Amino acid sequence: MKNNSFILKEFLDNAFNLKSHLMEFFSMKECDLDGFLANAKMNLANSHPGDSLNNVSDFYTEIVGDRHVADLAAWHIASKDYIADTLKLQQSFSRNLVLDFGGGIGTHALANAMSAKVEHVFFVDINETNRNFVEYRAKELGVEKKLTFCKTIKDTQISKFDTIICLDVLEHLTDPASQLEIFNEFMDFNSIALFNWYFYKGEKNEYPFHIDDLQIVEKFFKTLQSMFLEVFHPILITTRAYKKIR
Questions:
Q1: Domain containing residue 54
Q2: What mean pLDDT comes out for the span 59-63?
Q3: What does the radius of gyration of the chain's CA atoms come to, in whole angstroms?
């Protein structure tokens, strides 16, 4: 296993070989990669059906295709310093059995799999393309034995996790408070969860897939405050660390 400094350096150098993995997985030439990434956020936003969407999971399982991978890849490449800080935070808390919920293109799951403090990572994502892409990446990086890929938390067949990672996910859920309640059930009093959120559709509706309903958001914060206690960390990022209080 690699030490923390090496993991961070490898991410900052090339985002764990992300560009190579994209080209190989999607059978894409290097000259086509920039186009794949250039308008990723706009292409994903334009694919959203708006108010006609009945089930948010349908958007990520049936509609997005590889546009979600492109959007996440563009964000990770353009924001490496910020994401490196989330990896640094993760290194402070991650241990033993880790749940990575809504793990996207796998940056945090792969970094955790490289850590000697982590026994196993359960990567949960409802998008099959995401799961297949991260499984491919894990094999390329030689950490596939420390990762299990699942569509739901129930599929992991684990009753308690020592660490839960849920980044850039909660704002996509129709009822994020209920997801907090589920996480609480899978934690004991020594577990740590890392959460962030962005309940905002953007100035120009560039994030139409985000929840911003005031009642839903208020319910989320009431649930968060009733079930979890924040654990201080000194890194100036939006991600927060929590332990359960009931």
A1: 4-244
A2: 66
A3: 17
The SS3 call for residue 40 is helix
Between helix 128-141 and helix 18-25 the angle, nearest 10°, is 120
Residue type, 42: M
Report CA-CA distances (Å) from 99 to 54, 109, 125, 158: 28, 8, 11, 9
State how far the Cα of 240 lies from the Cα of 123, in Å rounded to an integer: 20
Q: Encoding tokens for residue 50?
A: 């708006």
Beta carbons within 8 Å of 3's beta carbon, 6+ residues apart: 116
- Evaluate whether 77 touches 43 at the Cβ level (below 8 Å): no
- Nearest Cα neighbor of 126 from 173, 81, 71 is 173
| Structural domain count of the chain | 1
- The pLDDT value given to residue 40: 78
For 166, the token pair is 């849920």
DSSP tag of 192:
E
Could you tell me which of 86, 120, 102 has the C-alpha nearest to residue 8? Answer: 86
pTM exceeding 0.85:
yes
Helix H or strand E segment including 188 = strand 187-195
Q: Which two tokens stand for residue 108?
A: 């945090």
| Residue indicated by tokens 């408070």 | 177
Please list, residue by residue across 12-42, b when 16 or more beta carbons sit within 10 angstroms of its beta carbon and e when fewer do: eeebbebbebbeebeeeeeeebeebbeebbe
Mean pLDDT of the chain: 93
Q: Report the CATH number that the domain containing residue 58 is assigned in CATH.
A: 3.40.50.150
Q: In whole angstroms, how far apart are CA 223 and each of 36, 71, 179, 186, 230?
A: 39, 30, 10, 16, 13
